[in-house]
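Researcher: Sit down with what I've pasted below and flag anything odd:
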Amino acid sequence: MKGMHPRRQDALMAVVLFAGGLVLLLCGAYVNRGVPVQVLAVPLAVTCLGVALRRRAPVAALVLGVVAVMGDLCLGPSFPTILVFTDNIYSATLYGPRRLATALLYVTSVLTVVAGVVAGFLARDWSVLAIGLVQSGVVLTTPTITALMIRNHRDQALAERARADQVARLAELDRQAAVTGERTRMARELHDMIANHFSAVAIQSAAVIARQDLDPRAVRKVLESIRENSVRGMAEMRTMIGLLRAEDDEGDPTGHRLTDAADLVERCRRAGLPVELRVRGTPPGLPRPVESAGYRILQESLTNVMRHGAGPARVVIRYDADAVTLTVENDTDGEPAALPGSGTGLVGMAERAGLVGGSFTAGAADGGWRVVATLPFQTPPEELRTGPSAVPDRPWWSIATEEPSLVGTRGRE
């Protein structure tokens, strides 16, 4: 019967049981009280009708079975009808409401005991009482307990399946979050690595094009700086590609640290940006994530000065007992910028500060622009989970709205 609709299976089972019951009745499987076999076949047919309705209407099947058994007890009783009645009880317990199944367990248990006691009392024989209890238990209690066990296993299987589906959905969400996080990290690294070098290349090439009176030595010096920035940018790009192809993960793809700030400032000076660097305090052995975040924040800040600033940059790196603070200031004059920005630089700097549990602010100050990042040496686990720190009185991501004010300042010639 594999592949057959369940209702058709029930109807076929009812026909088979009715045919088998008729054979048993013809063989004399009933208490002979002078009732014709044709009459005893009526309760049998009613119980078989309950078998046909066992899935679609289990309560109705139980009612039909009870009515048929009561009539059969008055006429016979007959073995086939009682045997089919056990399926009516089983079906009502398995397919019926949960409350009905619980009620049937109590009712059948009480009826089993009552039937055995009554049989033993009437016969005045303990052996009859025992036989009555066993027979009543087989007919009433056993189908109920069996159906309850199967029902519990079925419900447990459904619950496990639902739990497995939920775990699969959570795993998929985790995978998507990991992919999104990795994409964000890749975008941040690519932006920070390439923007500084290419901004310097663009500014220097624009200066060579704009100035027709430069002597060959000055042009050669600018071209050497352009070449240096191009080579460095390509080297860092190759490093990033190698990292993406590798199986292990590193905190900083290029190995830059905050202690390399002097080299970064010197490159910016060779690109034509006057930078004043002050280091206060003694640099301790910083964790690598803090070193990387500090270097990238300083690099992106100087890149923004090249793009949008109107005067020299002033960089202060202050090492305290438990944190390092970066401050980058430059003048602005409100003129349109020579180079457009991507609008993600400030967001990326805030993300880097937040990933190590630090704070980040950027905005207009004293007629210019100021970036301040404070990075603690030891990052509490709860801060690692909460993400970037907030700018006072604003969510951290709102600083992205300040990018247009950067774009609105005049770039270097």
